[in-house]
Amino acid sequence: MLVKVLDNETNTPVSFAKVNVVRKGKKGWLTEKESMLVNESLTNTYGEVLVDFKYDRGNTYALFVYPPSGYFQTGNYHYVDLEKGKNQETVYLYQQSFIKLNLISNQASGKVLDIKIDEATSVYYTYYSNSTAVNKMVFCSVNSSVGNKSLTWSVDSAGTRNKYASPIQLKGHDTVYATIHF
Questions:
Q1: 0.90 exceeded by the pTM?
Q2: Which residues pair with 169 in a beta bridge?
């Protein structure tokens, strides 16, 4: 079976993605089968890999794609049930985006800072216990698809939680800069 791994945004090949084929475990009345790795390969420079395995009667198989550096999946790992007789499978990976945050606070002591994309994808979280002033840069990789998003942050200080938001455009494989005053 030929497996192609492509970039979701650019449709270009993704090399060095680890591709596993697993025989799925199953429970039977008298027997129980564990899941078992039957093939493991890396995609080439064309984003392709030929996985060779034999379908055993009564078993089901799954394909797992582990993203290389700079890519992510929307779930833990990309999982596809394989169908007998199908000769090709295409899997799409998403580009990681990068944000360089300039964190500024005149009085950071006792504050919790929680930064997210669209209030869902965590970017940065920290607690300042004994710092009076903060002015530092933080580099973060973000598992969020490219495009217009909302950079949200909440500041919890002495039990009072304040929420803020600002638009941001994630560029995938490129760094976006943002300043957070808290």
A1: no
A2: 148
Radius of gyration for the chain, computed over Cα atoms and rounded to the nearest angstrom: 22
The first and second tokens of residue 96, run together, are 């990681």
Domains of the chain plus CATH, in order, are: 2-95 (2.60.40.10), 97-181 (2.60.40)
In sign, the C-alpha dihedral spanning 68, 72, 75, 76 is positive
Q: What tens digit of pLDDT does each residue of 89-120 get? A: 999 999 999 999 999 999 999 999 999 999 88
- Confirm if 176 and 100 have CB atoms less than 8 A apart: yes
73 neighbors 65 (Cβ within 8 angstroms): yes
Q: How many CA atoms lie within 13 A of 63 on its CB side?
A: 28
CA distances from 182 to 28, 62, 114, 142, 170 (A): 57, 46, 10, 21, 22
What does DSSP say about strands 88-95 and 160-170: parallel, antiparallel, or unpaired?
unpaired
- 36, 24 contact by CB (below 8 A): no
